[in-house]
Amino acid sequence: MDYFFTEEQKMIIQLAREIAEKKIKPVREYYDETEEFPWPIVEEIAKSDLAGVYIPQEYGGTGGGIFELVLVVEELSKVDGGIALALAASALGALPILLFGNEYQKQKYLPAIASGKKLAAFALTEPEAGSDAGAIKTTAKLEGDSYILNGTKCFITNGGEAEIYSVVAMTDKTKGARGASMFIVEKGTPGFTFGKKEKKMGIRASATRELIFDNCRIPKENLIGKEGQGFMIAMKTFDMSRPGVAAQALGIAEGALEDAIQYARQRKQFGQPIISFQAIQHMIADMATEIEAAKCLLYQVARTIDAHPKDRHTKISAMAKLFASDVAMKVTIDALQILGGYGYMREYPMEKRVRDAKITQIYEGTNQIQRNEIALALIKESARK
Question: Is the predicted pLDDT of residue 131 greater than 90, yes or no?
Answer without folding.
Answer: no
